[in-house]
Amino acid sequence: MKILYINPEANFGGAERSLVDAIVSVGRLAPDVRMHVILLSEGPLNPYLRSLGLEVSVLRLPRTVAGLGDSAIKGTTRVFPFLLKNISAGVGAIRFGRLLRGAIRKIAPSVIHSNGIKSHILLSLAGLPDRPVVWHLRDFVASRKLARGLLQRYSNRAVRGIAVSKAVAEDVQSFIKDLPTEVIYNGIDSDYFSPGAAQFEWLDQLAGFEPKLDGEIVRVGLVASFGKWKGQAVFLHAASKVLQELSAKRVRFYVVGGAIYQTSGSQFSLEELKALTRKLGIAPSVGFVDFTPEICPVYRSLDIVVHASTEAEPFGRAIVEAMSCGIPVIATRTGGASEIMDMSSGCLGVAPNDIGQLSGAILRLVSDEKLRASMSDKGRSCVLENFSRARLGSRLLEVYKRVSKDRSIS
């Protein structure tokens, strides 16, 4: 059996790290399965996948198509008039679909695993009725006019949906009735994401802090791409309230991430976030750390991880990664994140966009070292039980066997 994975981005966002987990987990359980990856952009994911021994092809999306997303059509009410105004993007997508079809024909996969909304749509434009396509559903789409309309239109091109949470499955099934969809939670490498020695001086140096201050410091960080809905602004406002209660010598805040995606209008810039810290008067107590594929040492060097999404979270990968490292988490109780919290008391839940609740939860954990230790143990146990790579690989192989005519894998 040969599995072809298609992913729109080549940077290390959550969807891309989850793709790596899927590939590695399948490879470990079924080493005879051949795997090929097509990326639709250049980036660090390309050499990383090659280092794992995978065949990787890069088909670069036209810029007009790469930048097309729902954030670009706010204020419009109908999908197709918008597309008519963006003829170059539509023509580019159709031409790219033909290019993609030719590449897939050469690879001749048994199953195509699509890992993003853009790849779902472009695969549909490619028109490959003889190749079973599985859509990995990682986003809420019902409220996104452009994506919802296109996925609904082309849903008959997929034979199976894999949702990363019950919340995502319910969202998709609200507008696509005929796509068989099952919930398979993301799995992570719990050997890599594991408790270990903190590197406080290293993290402070990356963040631009002075290397050492008198007394103990509690380090509180948010780890996420700079998508506006990830809640960096809420986090910084909460940090301001915490610093009104506590000395800056006792607590530091870290914003870890970057503007890694190509869709226009949907992200903060680093300068925008730095400007907000200056406006709030907290710039000396906030450090910024660029995204790194080696994120585990960052988690280990934080005492508290905050997940402050302002919209419902499809899954909440950073929550699971931090808990796996034994770090207590404060997270917005919405969507898939709520499902994680229901499995473990290693995470405190707060309401979305509630600066008061978030600052209160931070103050509680900063002041209670015993509670942090208890949450650390419970969070790690939850990950080992529910979010292992082995469990992920087993479930994915079941799907591949079910949709493929090739039953050769064991």
Can you tell me about this structure?
By secondary structure, the chain is an alpha/beta fold. The protein has helices spanning 14-29, 45-51, 63-66, 79-85, 87-107, 117-126, 145-154, 166-173, 200-207, 232-245, 270-280, 296-300, 317-324, 335-343, 355-367, 369-386, 389-403; strands at 2-7, 34-39, 55-58, 111-114, 133-137, 160-163, 181-183, 218-223, 251-256, 286-289, 304-307, 329-332, 347-350. Strands 3-2-1-4-5-6-7 form a 7-stranded parallel beta sheet, sandwiched between helices. Helix 8 links the parallel strand 6 and strand 7 (181-183). The longest helix is centred in the N-terminal third of the chain and has 21 residues, at 87-107. The protein starts with a strand and ends in a 7-residue tail after the last helix. Mean pLDDT is 89; it is low at 70-77.
Average pLDDT reading:
89
Overall 3D geometry? globular
Q: How many angstroms separate the termini? A: 11 Å
Strands in their spatial order, largest beta sheet: 3-2-1-4-5-6-7
Rg calc: 21 Å
Reading off the top of the CATH hierarchy, the class of the largest domain is best stated as Alpha Beta
The name CATH uses for the topology of the largest domain is Rossmann fold
Secondary structure layout plus pairing:
Layout: E1 2-7, H1 14-29, E2 34-39, H2 45-51, E3 55-58, H3 63-66, H4 79-85, H5 87-107, E4 111-114, H6 117-126, E5 133-137, H7 145-154, E6 160-163, H8 166-173, E7 181-183, H9 200-207, E8 218-223, H10 232-245, E9 251-256, H11 270-280, E10 286-289, H12 296-300, E11 304-307, H13 317-324, E12 329-332, H14 335-343, E13 347-350, H15 355-367, H16 369-386, H17 389-403
